[in-house]
Amino acid sequence: MSASSLGYNEQGGEAATEQGQEATPTTAPSVPAAFGLFSSDTKKNEDLKQMLESNKDSAKLDAMKRIVGMIAKGKNASELFPAVVKNVASKNIEIKKLVYVYLMRYAEEQQDLALLSISTFQRALKDPNQLIRASALRVLSSIRVPIIVPIMMLAIKEASADLSPYVRKNAAHAIQKLYSLDPEQKEMLIEVIEKLLKDKSTLVAGSVVMAFEEVCPDRIDLIHKNYRKLCNLLVDVEEWGQVVIIHMLTRYARTQFVSPWKEDGVLEEDNEKDFYESDEEQKEKDQKVKKPYAMDPDHRLLIRNTKPLLQSRNAAVVMAVAQLYWHLAPKSEAGIVSKSLVRLLRSNREVQYIVLQNIATMSIQRKGMFEPYLKSFYVRSTDPTMIKTSKLEILTNLANEANISTLLREFQTYVKSQDKQFAAATIQAIGRCATNISEVTDTCLNGLVCLLSNRDEIVVAESVVVIKKLLQTQPAHHGEIIKHMAKLLDTITVPVARASILWLIGEYCERVPKIAPDVLRKMAKSFTNEDDLVKLQILNLGAKLYLTNSKQTKLLTQYILNLGKYDQSYDIRDRTRFIRQLIVPNEKSGALSKYAKKIFLAQKPAPLLESPFKDRDRFQLGTLSHTLNTKAIGYLELSNWPEVAPDPSVRNVEVIELGKEWSVALGKAKKEKPTEKFYSDSEEEESASTTDTESESTSESEKEKNGKEEGSSMENSESSSEELSDSESESKEGSAKKKFKTTEESDSDDTEKKTKMISKKRESSGSSDSESSSTEESSSDSESESDSESDAESRKHKNAIASKVSSPIFVPMKTHELLHRMSGKGLAAHYHFSRQPCIYGNQMVSVQVTLTNTTDQKLENIHVGERKLPAGMKMHVFNPIEFLEPEESITVSMGIDFCDSTQTASFQLCTKEDHFNVNIQPPVGELLLPVTMSEKDFKTEQGMLTGMNETSTTITVAPQNSTRLVLLEKVVKAANLGVVPSGQDNIHRFSAKTVHSGSLMLVTVELKEGSTAQLIINTEKTVIGSILLRELKPVLSQG
Amino acid sequence: MRKSKDRLRNESPNQNPRGVTDPGASGPDQSLPRPFAGAGGGCSAEGGAAKARGASGTWCEPDRPGRIKLLQNRVLLGRQSVSSTCTPLGSTMIHSLFLINSSGDIFLEKHWKSVVSRSVCDYFFEAQERATEAENVPPVIPTPHHYLLNVYRHKIFFVAVIQTEVPPLFVIEFLHRVVDTFQDYFGVCSEVVIKDNVVVVYEVLEEMLDNGFPLATESNILKELIKPPTILRTVVNTITGSTNVGDQLPTGQLSVVPWRRTGVKYTNNEAYFDVIEEIDAIIDKSGSTITAEIQGVIDACVKLTGMPDLTLSFMNPRLLDDVSFHPCVRFKRWESERILSFIPPDGNFRLLSYHVSAQNLVAIPVYVKHNISFRDSSSLGRFEITVGPKQTMGKTVEGVMVTSQMPKGVLNMSLTPSQGMHTFDPVTKLLSWDVGKINPQKLPSLKGTMSLQAGTSKPDENPTINLQFKIQQLAISGLKVNRLDMYGEKYKPFKGIKYMTKAGKFQVRT
């Protein structure tokens, strides 16, 4: 192309592009430089468009890469929008990603076109791959197009219930985006936040708290129920989340707990250190006298759980914990943060800068905290100036009688620094030390006077200013120093210093009566050339001398006043006029001139040399506002402690049994299930990820083993987990109401209903655990429940007719000793059978072991060592326990497959140092799981188990046992049997299955006349049957 | 100095309308508000003024009074104000990121939400100009509508734009993490490299932040999401059309060990630990130690298959006064047993950094004898320094490097070193002497004269000498690793531990 074709360059360029496109799709056409910026740009874009429309992914990718490059450089690429948006559904994931990048950048500008892409995201939101779901949500919520707000809302709601915590995390992020796009959605979003706050995943916690802080930081009530959970999760949350959560919890704690500072408050007040001290606090203190302060356990929990985070490698986390301790911990405990803060000083200059600022604020109030680290704040010549001055500030704050001499020596080095700005700051610091510590005032003053002969003008000027302030605080006879300074007037040119000297001479003119007029004479000569600042002081000096020594200076002063009258600065003219009226008596002058001397030569209070960080503490430490010393947009005030703590019970949550928590830790090995039906399932997954990292390694190997075991009975494992989750949700919901609802719904006969009514009353009166209360009720209860879960269950049993495993009617509280504390060297262990279906394998009996540390030392690493199990028996041990505090106990659950025998399971219980041989022998009644069936089914089953499978005996029944309720109670106490509803009053039937093999175990008690009874047991497992028979006999015959 | 001037100006009567009060009186000193005082000195006066106007006034975006760029800014304003007014406040921690090179060009920008105009950086440039030196630029710069938080590394300013209150360390720490990630990805972090890999940079940044909130900052995870560019991969990608972008969620993201990727496989399983200690010290004129402390780190390079669980124990763990861990270290185990127990990330990482307090006596391995004198009368000064070993536990001190910032009055130096090379830059007045190894039999020295500017008086301070050195196979604190055990995997790894002592900020005042 030549210059002549300039007019057609547009078309020509395109033609060239096309040619180039055909040959090599990736190379850009060569554009003559003469075409100028604009034209070449559009042409490039044409080329990009074609590449985007090509069939080849590589061309598209190249184009997208170039476009992203343009965006990165800040060039406008918006006109490519239609071409780019077409590729949003690309199969190539990298192209897709880059399109996403583009969309997020330009969707706001091209809203109509952006809508074209929405359906793609909506589809992707349903993708089985969680990464794709998450990124679809991310992009969808980042497209700032108001029209799609409802779609976003829907997507967020769905994602917040997603199985994958990663998607839920993204949902939390999307909340903030939607809120900023459309604040109208606030209420709906708060609902989602509320839901996500309950999430137990560490991945979600940080993000949702962030969303909370953005959307509804005032809804502190949402935190109550989650407070303890957040405290406990904190260590495992990713570091960025930690920062956000800690800041939020700090705010929360300040509204919920009472001040822990009262004890030492008295001391603090005397020293005028405590800025929180107020009238309110005073009142509180009065109360305190009556009632000793006890820290709320939740308050303590927060303080305790944040402490390990001081060791974080992330400076922001350390700072967050430090500010938490500063604002929340008792003053005696806040000291532990100083070490970590000092450690941060090794970090990058930016981190240093922020940390030093915070330390400066802290060191004003509590010197003690940082005094031991004084030397860490020594200045190096290589520090940037801002770091130097911050360090100097801290050193000054820390100065006291004990360390001042070392400090002054250090300061002497600084004064000589080549960095003159810093040297000047040091002089100020010396001045502050001198006023604060009276012992060294004279030393400092002498030192500063020496500096007056320094060569550097800045240093001298600064010294003059500081000396002036010092002399004011010490109005003793410092005539010599003033004379010395008067001489300096000839050499010093820095206006501030000159002004200061003049002021000093004026102020103390009576002490230097000879020099003062002479100075005024000199100054009158140079008046016109002086800085405004100096001029004002000359006027001042003149006025003062006029009043004290009018004989010598009257003319001089009038000369100066005349000069001032015509000065350029109106400020000086004003001042001149004012002084003239005041001091020069004339007929018009008012009453004031009589007082002129008093006005000018009044005793002036000495200036307080204060730290510039003095007022910083009105801001929460570690915040941007604190750094800037001004309220930043969106700064949330830290409230004052409440006088009376709000109700602490709002933080109570239903206690989840220990056993469950331990058990879910192992549920992790399970695969994520494709159905979304069981919420409890996903919950398991979450809490699995919350388990301590400590237990991780060991549980890993166990899981593998567990996995193997499960593998053998794979088809059962799923349903067993369902059982688990069902029983869990039941125990969690726990509310009697719901339970009864289902009971009433179930079609049972009237008599039963009656008993239910009775037991209902009992339960509602609080004795839910009472033994006899609910045999009947729970049997029918379990029936109705098992109905609801029957679909999933039905394939499971061999005897599928009607028997379903039900929850135990009664769980005996009886514990058996596993290890006595004497033989266990202080470690005591008890076990009992929870009668729950075991979660580790459905052939196992679950055993709850309670370990107690009776020593006065920590027991560490409690775990199960070597096992001696009879052939076929299996055991699933608990996770090793990291440590057990003195007097603490912990309950863990194990699973043992006894192979339907009463053989003993022997194993070693080990601590870090010792191991003890222990064994568990199950009572035969614990080898069973109750099943429910109808009377009819029972009879059918019984009919099939006759002959060899039947054992029976005649027993005498104690009279008090003959009533129905008592009898049922006795039997289920002895063995884990389910009650079969019976039509006859004198026949009681119980059914169960063995845990290992699932064989039915049918027990019939037929009451006869004369307090005898026939006890019949039908089962394939004749051995167990006969043992059970033997065991039940005494139970019924004894009272 | 600016700060102090500010204060003095406030004190001066001309700012005090009451007039009667003398400058010495305490009144104005306390009562006059000093906006932004001490905020790093940055924008104090003008920033404050601008802020006031911005708040009351009509314009949304900053402009700077008395500047040539003013007009340009105004032009930009029209467009900018639209986007910034329709954005409600809040809701983003880090709004945008600008990368600025030392000559003041913005060479990369990334926005996580609506676009913030580049003109916001003018405030940064202003602060930069005022600070004269790059490292004096205040890390936090307020502007009327935004706050600029920056870090300076590898001669690049990483400037984050934020809109609302946020813990400043949060942003700063994140920016540093970004730099570390770039370094990890590309080997070096420089303007050229970033420009060359702009797409990867963009993809990485996209993953690191979502809506301004950090999403994935562990480099192990990021590398699974976006693979770092290597020559081989670039070639393969162009041939096969495969991509750098992972399509599976990194397993680490969901697990309790987010720092480690799964499915790690090596043929040679090895774990190396470097115990590196740095001595920070200030030595005074007479050679006595003013302050000395030891900062140590343990850097690890672990290339082990599977999910190894390592424990590292020390002979003398009590030495460690203050520690900070990589998140992988189990804190409770450390607290109770003083053992480092962890599942390591794959590759290089910093396991631990620790501090040996100043209370402990720190052995100073070198000494410097110096004789630097300026005479008032002549324009020549004497300069003589000798470096020698002190408490080195029999190890050789090597890599010795002496630098010193000479006073402005020094015009030139003519020196002769007994070993090594020396340079003096007459412009920056920086003297550096690369000594190398110290031979205790023949101590290295540098002698000669300085020529001073005629007519000026002698500098009142002798220069400070900064020292760098290295001692191999010695941890000066005496820290010793006892043993390293591995659990959870069957194979036997190769283990290695290296000790080294270095000078940190080691200064000798003369």
UniProtKB/TrEMBL annotation, chain B:
One Pfam family this sequence matches: Adap_comp_sub
Gene Ontology cellular component list: axon cytoplasm; clathrin adaptor complex; cytoplasmic vesicle membrane; GABA-ergic synapse; glutamatergic synapse; Golgi apparatus; presynapse
InterPro entries: Adaptor_comp_med_subunit, AP2_Mu_C_sf, AP_mu_sigma_su, Clathrin_mu, Clathrin_mu_CS, Longin-like_dom_sf, MHD
Record keywords, A-Z: Cytoplasmic vesicle, Golgi apparatus, Membrane, Protein transport, Transport
Keyword Cell division: no
Residues covered by region (Disordered): 1-48
PROSITE patterns for this protein: CLAT_ADAPTOR_M_1, CLAT_ADAPTOR_M_2, MHD
CDD domains the record matches: AP-3_Mu3B_Cterm, AP3_Mu_N
Transport is among the record's keywords: yes
Subcellular location: Golgi apparatus; Cytoplasmic vesicle membrane
Membrane-topology annotation of the record: Peripheral membrane protein
Every MHD domain range: 268-509
Domain of life: Eukaryota
GO BP, one annotated term: anterograde synaptic vesicle transport
Similarity annotation: Belongs to the adaptor complexes medium subunit family.
Protein known as: AP-3 complex subunit mu-2
Organism: Chrysemys picta bellii (Western painted turtle)
Source organism phylogeny: Eukaryota, Metazoa, Chordata, Craniata, Vertebrata
Gene name of the record: AP3M2
